[in-house]
Specification:
six-stranded mixed beta sheet, alpha/beta, nine-stranded mixed beta sheet, 21% strand
Length: 447
Amino acid sequence: MIPLSLAEIAQIVGGRVEGDVAVTVTAPAVLDGRRAETGGLFVAFAGEHADGHDFAEQAERAGAVAVLGTRRTTLPTVVAGDSARALQSLATHVVAGLRPEMTVIGITGSQGKTSTKDLTAAVLGSLAPTVATLGNFNNALGVPITMLRAQPHTRFLVLEMGARRVGDIATLTGMVAPDVAIVLNVGKAHLGEFGSRSAIARGKAELVRGLVPGGTAILNADDARVRAMRALTDGPVLTFGRAEDADVRVQHVTLDRLGRPEFALRTADAAAAVSLPLVGAHQALNAAAAAAAGLVHGVPLEQAAAALAAAADSGQRLEVKELENGATLLDDSYNSSPGSVRSSIDALVSINGGRRIAVLGEILELGDHSESEHRSAGAYAAARADIVVGVGENVRPLADAAGERGVAVPDNAAAVDWLRANLSPRDVVLVKGSRGAHLDEVVAALE
C-alpha cells in the first residue's frame, strides 16, 4: 500500500480520525488481524457473531498501526459509516492515482480463475513488477484488499473477479475498470444463486462491459457463450483455445506421469512449447489465456512459455503430495463446482499409479439443481475412477449414482477412517469439495 496518513485516509473515505491523525499506514490492509504486517491497516467489521473491532489489539500485536472501521478501537482508528464502502473508496482512490502507469487485468469464469490468475501473474511478472490476488480473494472485499497492495512501482495489477449473482462483477468494475478482461468459461458454479446458465453468462459478461474505453477482451474461443461476448465491446478482442480460429491456439496436449500438461501454443506468427508444473489437461487453456495477456503487453510467446513453466499456484488446487504409505494425494480441497469436478476427475485418472480414488464433498450453491448435479458428478466419476467416496449426507446422490463403485460416508472423520483402512501404496486419491465442506481436514489428516 502506498503510504497514507490517517488524516489522508479519513479525507478519502469521508470519515474521522479517533486518535493520532499523523499515524501513517505503510503496509497492506488486511481483514484478518492475525495477518497484519508491520505498519499495516486492519479493516474491522461488526458481524452477526463477532465484532472485528474487538480484535484491534490482536492486529496491533501482529504489526498493524491503525484500524479502518465504524467505531473507535484501542488503535488509532479512521471511523466511517460503512467499513466495506470505506475500504472500496480507499482502494479506488489509490489505484486511480497509480494509473495510467499501471495496467489492470481482470479475470473471471466459472472455473479456472485462480489458476489463470497465477499463470497470468507469472507471464506479466516476467516483464515488470506485478501484484495479483492472493488465493481466490475475489469478492467485493477481497478485490479492494488486493488493489491496496499496489505500489508506485507496480506495473500490472492482476485481479481475480468472482460472482454469485448478476451485478457482482459490475460492482467490482465500478471500483476498478480493467484495461484487459479475460473471460474463461460459463459453467454451473453458483447456479443456485444465478438461477440459469444464461444468467451466469450475463454476470460474466459484466467484465467485458466494464472495460475502460478501448480496453482489450481476451475470450475463450471454445465456449460459445464466451465467444459471443465479442459483440459487447468495440475494443480489441483476442481469443484463445483449441479452435482453429483462436488467436492463441492450444495444440498437441500430452500429460506426463503426474498428469502435468505439455503442449504447444501457436499464434499467426509464432509457436512455443510449454511444460506446466500444474496438474490437468484443462490447465493448457488457462495457460493460453495467460499467454494472450502477455501478448497484449509485448511478452513474446517464448518468454511467456518460460514464465509458465516456472509458475506457482495458490495451493489446494490439484496439488500433488506424496503420502507416507506410498500413495499419491491430489489435494483440490479449496473449492468445487460441477465443471471443476470433471476437470479434477480427468486429472486424477491421468496420473500414473494404482487405483484411482475420488473423495468428493458437497458442491455448494447449486440450489434446486443440487441433487441432479451431484448425481451427474457421481456418474462421471464412476465412469473414470475405481472408487468414488461421497462425503456427507447431501452427497449421497453422488455416491448412489456411482453404483458399485460408490461409497457413502457421513462426514469428514468417517472419510479419513475409510481412507486409512483402505488406501494402498501406489493408489492415487483426489480430495475435492466446496470450501464449506472443509475437506482440507481430510487432507490434513492424511498428511
